[in-house]
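From the shared-data thread, chain only:
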Amino acid sequence: MSPEGNNPFRKNPLETHEEDRERMQLAISLSSSSPEQKTYKVGCVITDKNGKVLMSGFTGEMEGFHAEEIVIKKLKLAGLEEVARGGSIYSTIEPCHPRRSGKTSCTDHILSLGVSRVIYVLDEPKKIFKIAGPGEKFIDCQGAKTLRERGLEVVHMSELEEEVREINQHILKSKG
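Structure, as tokens:
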């Protein structure tokens, strides 16, 4: 069974799958524009409720921001925030939640925008990182789960994972 078929929030997976795939391919293409750093290369696209692309972007387009944050910020600057309500957001990697830095998570930014659907490809890998002083801290991303719990339709397009993994080899190869 396809990942969409397992999603209780997905109404008719065959009806919009091709459109979702096209918009996600745009996000994947954009993610390739991200500078190679110690962060994931993520592409993001926001559409209105009719599927029209309103804004797009990628990690590194603005210093210090995640791809979803960048696209939402650009959308607001363009005065298109209201048009995005009820629309969809496409992200190549699951929106973060919580955020290691303590800043607002991408999941919280998405919830405040008022879109009704979130489509992503790769689950955010589990993270273990050093903290000040002795020890390590574990981050288990809860983005998709939190979005579902808040009533958004969440679609995991796992069939495109290999493409997203390839673009992020610079960071995934060290994580196993």
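DSSP finds eight helices and seven strands in the chain.
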